[in-house]
Amino acid sequence: MLKLGQNKAARLDYQSGTFRVLSGGDHVVCAVTGARIDLSDLRYWSHELQEAYVSAEVASARYTEARDAGKL
């Protein structure tokens, strides 16, 4: 069976509490660590920065960094 989107990064529009798939794929990449995040495991992102994060700790650290830099 042909499975489209395997081993391809998806492009998402991160929204508050949800996200919309703009182009198909099976994962995204953490904006901080570069780790691969399967879409089924994606739990943390910033709709303001349009970034995905691998964990709550990484998301919190990035939010603090962005706030201190005046990006939020």
Describe this structure as you would to a colleague.
The chain has one helix at residues 56-68, and strands at residues 11-15, 18-23, 27-29, 36-38, 44-46, 51-53. It is 18% helix and 32% strand. It contains 1 helix and 6 strands; from the N terminus they run ββββββα. The longest helix is centred in the C-terminal third of the chain and has 13 residues, at 56-68. It starts with 10 loop residues before the first strand and ends with a helix. The model has no long low-confidence stretch (mean pLDDT 94). It is an alpha+beta fold and 72 residues long. It has one domain.
Annotation keywords:
single chain; 72 residues; alpha+beta; two-stranded antiparallel sheet; two-stranded antiparallel ribbon; 6 strands; 32% strand; globular
